[in-house]
Amino acid sequence: MPITVLVVDDQELMRMGLKMVLGAHQDIEVIGEAENGAAAISRAKELRPDVVLMDVRMPVVDGVSATQRIVEAGDGCKVLVMTTFDLDEHALGALRAGASGFLLKDTPPEDLVSAIRSVAGGDAVVSPKVTKRLLDRLIADDPGDMRDPAVLEVLTAREREVLEQIAAGRSNAEIAEQLYLSEATVKTHVGRVLTKLGLRDRVQAVVLAYETGLVRPGG
């Protein structure tokens, strides 16, 4: 079965371009589009796509609110946020609202396709370094919404180390090299971190690491 996608953007030209790019791949099917967040919520409920490609700056209902509503609906739709600016405060709001990823609109087509496949498979596709830069900037400017670091007490010392590495933007292979572990062992640790903390993916792990002060902006 192809991966089903709902394209959400207030610019018709952008929606057309995305549909053309995605339509060239047999394993991806664009099953609908929406021009604002309100329409996105309605269409996601109606169509139940695997992935929603979500613009963040839109009229009527913005992409952050739409993301939260779609994720909370529990229909299994994954949201992949697209924005023009890599330091867009709306993008952080979308990640906190439950988006599985964050890409820039100038992302090469092949990377976008790869991202959709990864999100549909349950992984997070945000460029870790872009996410880290975004969080560094925004949490330094607005330290609100901090979380009690006691939530991390369920982790072992090794799992905390792995969480720190995730927050630093490192892949499983890089974490394995850094901590002198096998990649399979790192994957197991990452899974346990997500399970123990009740997180859906690595994006939420990065956000939580910042919100609890496990890692600091610029650190």
Secondary structure topology:
Blueprint lengths: L2 E6 L3 H12 L4 E7 L2 H11 L3 E5 L7 H10 L5 E6 L5 H9 L3 E4 L4 H12 L7 H14 L15 H11 L4 H8 L3 H15 L4 H10 L8
Parallel strand pairs: 1-2, 1-3, 3-4, 4-5
Helix pairs in contact: 2-3, 3-4, 6-10, 7-8, 7-9, 7-10, 8-9
**Which strand-content bin applies to the residues?**
5-15%
Largest sheet: 5 strands, parallel
Q: What structural class should be given to the helix and strand makeup?
A: alpha/beta
Q: Give helix and strand order, one letter per element, not per position.
A: EHEHEHEHEHHHHHH
Number of helices: 10
What gross morphology would you assign? globular
Distance between the termini: 43 Å
Q: What Rg, in angstroms, do the CA atoms define?
A: 17 Å
**How many strand units?**
5
Helical coverage, percent range:
40-55%
Tell me what you see in this structure.
With 219 residues, the protein is α/β, with parallel strands linked by helices. The chain is built from ten helices and five strands. The protein has a five-stranded parallel β-sheet, with helices on both faces. β1, α1 and β2 form a beta-alpha-beta unit. α7 packs across α9 and α8 packs across α9. The radius of gyration is 17 Å and the shape is globular. The termini are far apart. The relative contact order is 0.11. The model has no long low-confidence stretch (mean pLDDT 85).
